Structure formats: structure tokens, C-alpha cells
Amino acid sequence: MKPLAWLASFRLRILFRSAFLLLALAVVAMAVAVLQEEKQRSYDNYQASFAKTKEQIVARLRHPAGQLALLNPPRDDGPVTPLRPVMLPFSAIDFDDQGKVRHAVEMAGCLVQYKNYGSLCVAIANNAWAGGFIYAAGTFVSSTLVPHRIGNEFLDGAHRLRVMVSLRGETYRWLAPFEVPGRNDRRQTSGMRGRFTGYVELDDRDYTGEMPVKEFRGWVWQSGRCLDAASASDEACEKKSFFSLRLPIDVLRDALFQPEKPQWPPPDLDQFQVRVEVLPPGDGPAIFDSNADGAVAPFSLNDLTDLLLPGETLTIRKAGRAEEADQLQLRGKHEVIEESSLLLTRLIRKLPVERYDAPVELADEVATPMGNYQIVLHGDARSVNQILSAVATRVSWFVGAMLLAIALAWLVIEIGIIRRISHLTRCSSALSRRVKTTDGLDRFDLADLRGGDELGILANCLNDLLRRVKEDAERERIRAEQERDLWHAVGHEIMSPLQSLLALHRHAGDPSHRYISRMQQAVRVLYGGASPSEAFQSSTLQVQAVDIAEFLRNVADNAGFADVRCAPAQGPVPVRADEYPLEDVFSHILKNADRYRQPGTPITLTLETTETTAMVIVHNVGQPVAEDFMDKIFEYGVSELAEAGANGNRGQGLFVAKTYMAKMGGTIAVRNLDDGVSFVLTLQRMRVVGAQ
């Protein structure tokens, strides 16, 4: 029980500290739970986004622009110009029809964009037997096209194209002036349609006797609307033109008739170089040049990298080929992620989520005219941890601020309340253990705990109470000293006559000698004590063998009360006792029994023995002892009489009896019976060894 009582003294402190500790743990647990939930949600979102990314990639690759990228090797990060032909996902192009050509190049997404509305697509068809041609189609902006007059030997008086193709160590150069087939086709309101007639370019401007290249075909369609609305009626306003060319390449056509089956597309297609210039009439600079700076390349497989997240890998290989040389791998760009806490990163990595360990991989297949391509997208779920760690690090200050607020609140309560309560508790505990005199109260000063709050008011009240107790203790000390002096004086005055009487009755067998000795014993017990209770408790007894059977007969014969009966006992029963104090015990008990017995009823003394104890039962017929009073009747100064002090009763008889019984190794108890009250005295038996 003592450990529990000691622990209970810390109950309030434990309660306060446990509450703050649990609150801090709850904040941390809430943060961890939110992190785990966010990790699960981020992973699920990543899975969904990963699937959408795969669908976007496949959709773009199934579009003609995507198939164009699949059929052609991806370009590197070098310059876009000079242009290199790409293989279209079409078997041929109807270059004579503006709508078909425009639809083909726009759907294929092969147009390279230039400034001032310029664009150009240079390509070959995916069917080798369509002829060894390179197609070029695009747009440029110019004033109203000036046609070349048929029969004129000089070509520089009209708008014209200059085309140059370089491949396999050979260079093809053409100059194609703009010509109008008939006057009816030259209508300003609906636009203008004409053709580019190709000639092998000469160093001289005189083309007398030169014949156009038969397989060179070119058409141009100029819009009738001005790009600038304010100049709609101006003949010299700029207009947008769309042109389409078919360039005959003898090297490619000759390869078709070789004994070996031609390889298509040509393996050196990315080495071909094409340049197209649109020249104005005269010697002015080119209106459009395909080698101009600022060209924007069309879509290629490398552009799919923008759809990939860090750690994701896209593998594209042709179906049926497992060689690493025939596959393309694209990796997501590594973004610079905010700095994250190493501790949070480790914590997030260890948080379990569902299906987190499953491999993240999706596959699909795209069909093209040149065969099927397998698309495999590999994901990296670790990026979820990195992103979540960066976000958690950014908002961790909020959790830290909450923990700091809890710590500050605990510190304020600890210093302002708990510390003062602890000090007050220690003072109170020490006061209850050690304060017995007024000197002990001087060591306990609670003035430093005074204040205007509730605890300060309590400390102030306790300090005033201790001051009152100190004053009462001082008065009690003075009274005790006066009482001790009185007992000294009374004892001295009584001992002198008793010593003279004892000299008159020297014989031990004289009854007067016995009573005088008992009186001296009683005076010695009280003489020198600070108080009667302390005197009785500090007295020393001479324990020896006493025949309790003979002792009870003498008590019954000399009790001084009427009708005290002793039940006879068989033989002597020696017990451990001091005869004189034992007589005082029975004197007080018999006096108490005589006071409360019914008139005319006897007081009986009964002896019961065991091998180790002798039990004396003193019984009287009368009213039972109140239950709430049975534990108090053996205390000093307790009496049932309302005016005990006035009648000379100090309430110390049963206290003396219990004290002497305890010093002799015995016990005394009281119990209620149906017809009265019994006092039970138990003494230890003593074995007497006879002489040999």
C-alpha cells in the first residue's frame, strides 16, 4: 500500500504531464497517419496518371503524326536545318491536288515551321515502287506572284524556286520559275493558281535552249486575301501561298532496278539534305529559305519525353525484334525537387501502402504500314516518395509549431503551477512527518508561494494556518512544561510519606507493604513524564512468571466491588507478566465493568488456556458498546461520560490497560455479546522447568 500511496502523491503531476505527452503523441500520430494516407492517395493517383500517360502516348503514336515519328529515326538535339526527308505513312501523295497535299502533310505533322507563316515538309512515300521522288510542300508569304512569260530566256524576272538536294555524294539543283497556265486562272478575288517549271540550275542567267526537267513537278496556290486587313485593296499586299513539289532523284530511281530488293526507307535517309528557297523577281534576297534560323521541328519521338515523369522509361521496339540496337528508350527528365528532410524521407519510405510493391509497367502495340511497334512504359513509384517528402518537408513547420506550442504550454504550467504544487506537496509531506514541536514549524515557510492566483491564495491560507498551529504548539509546550513541573512536585511530595510508611511495614508479607509498593510504582511511572500518556508509554516493566489462576482468585477476593466471581482453574498457569501493572490492568477493567453492569448482576472472571496462551474473559451484563465507539475506547482521554473530567475520570483507564498489556506481550480486546460486554485479555504462557 505504501508504494500506491507514494504514487498517489504524484497523481496530479502525472496527469498533467501525461496529458501533454499524449497530446504531443497524438499530433505526431496524426501527422504520420496523414502521411500514410497521402502516400496511398498519391500512389493511386500515380497509377491512374501512369495509365493515362500510356493512353496518351499510344493515341499520339496511332495518329499519322505519331506514325511519322515511328517510321523515322528520332532526331538528335542538333539544328533542325538543313532539312532531311522523312518517310510518310502514305504510299504516295497526289501533289497536283492542293486539298489532298495539304491534308496529307498536316495530318502527318511533318511541317517545319518558320517565321512569317512559313512552313515546309520534305518527305518520301512509304512505298518504294511509287518512284524515286522526294516530295516538298509548304507555305510562304509574298506579294502577288509575278509569273514568268513562257518563251523568255531569262528566269529572274519572275518569282521562282531554287531547290537543292544533296545525297550520297551527289547534288541536284533546280530553278523553277512561277508560270500561269492561262489568263483565266489569274483571279485576284479567289486567289491565283500556277505551277513551278523546273530547270537544272545554271551559273548563267540565260537559259536559252534549256529544256525543263520532265519529272520535276510543282504547283502553287496563292490566296486572294491579304494578311493585313487594312491593305485588302492594295495590289502589293502580302498573301499566303501554298506550294507542292515532286523532285526526281535519279539515284533512288536507279536503285529500284537493281537485282537486289531495294531497302526502303533508305538506310541513309537521315543523311539526305534538302534546301528550298523562294526568290523574288530580280536579285533581291530570298523571301523564304528552308535553312533560315528559328525553324521549329515537327513532332518526333523525343517529344514524348515531356509526357514522362522522373523515373519513367518508355521503350519502343519493332515487333519481332529483340535487339537492343533496334529499340528506342526515352526517360523522363529529372526535375529539380525541393530539398526534403532525410528523416521524413525515411519515414515515408517505411509507411506501408497497398500494392506499392507491385511492378508498374504497361504495354501496348501500334500498327503502322511498315510493321507493328511494341510500346512498353515502365513507371517508378519512388517518385511518389520524393514528391511527398518534399511536400511534407515544406509543411512540417506546421506540425513543429503545434509541438512547440504544446511544449510551451507544458513549460508554462510546469513552472507556474506544477513546480509550486510540488514544492507545496514536499513541504506538507515533510511537515506531516517531522513536525512535533514548534521548532519544526520554523523550518516551513510558504511565503514565497504567495500570490494573487488560486494557488497563491491557498499558500497564503496554509502559511497563516501554520502560524496559528505554531502558536498553539507553543502554548501546548508551555502547558506541558507546567504539567511536568506539577507532576514533579506532586511526585516528590507523595514519595516522601510513602517512603516513611514503607519503613513502618518492612515485611513483604504485610498487605500494607504490597499496597504501598504499588503506590510507589504508580508514582514512579508518572514522575518525570511530560504527560500521563507519555509517562505510561515510556514506563518499563519487570516481566516474570506469574500464576494467573492464583492471581485471578486474589483479584476476585480483593476487588473492592460486590459480586466479583472467579471460575476455578485446574492447577497453576504461569504467564509472562509484571504483577503490579497487571493488577492495575484488572483494576481499571473491573472498575469499567462495575460502572456499566446492571444492578444485581455479577462480574465473572473466566480463564481459558491453550498450549501457548492464557485468555482471561471479564464479562458483565449490561448495554453493549456502540459499534462506532469500540475502536476508540482504548485511546487516551476517551470516555463515554459527558462530564468525565468533572467527575475525576480522565479517560485513561483502558488506555493504561492496553499499554501495560502490550508491554507484557499480551493483547486486550472488547466484544459485544447478547447479554452484555466481555473484555478478553490474552497473555503468553511461560513454561516452568523444575529443579533436577
From TrEMBL:
GO terms for biological process: phosphorelay signal transduction system. Its EC number is 2.7.13.3. Keywords: Kinase, Membrane, Phosphoprotein, Transferase, Transmembrane, Transmembrane helix. Signal peptide: none annotated. It comes from the Bacteria. The keyword Transferase applies. It holds the Pfam family HATPase_c. Residues 489-687 form the Histidine kinase domain. GO terms for cellular component: plasma membrane. It catalyses: ATP + protein L-histidine = ADP + protein N-phospho-L-histidine. The chain crosses the membrane at residues 395-418. GO terms for molecular function: protein histidine kinase activity. PANTHER family: SENSOR HISTIDINE KINASE TRCS (PTHR45436:SF5), SENSOR HISTIDINE KINASE YKOH (PTHR45436). This is histidine kinase. It comes from Candidatus Accumulibacter meliphilus.
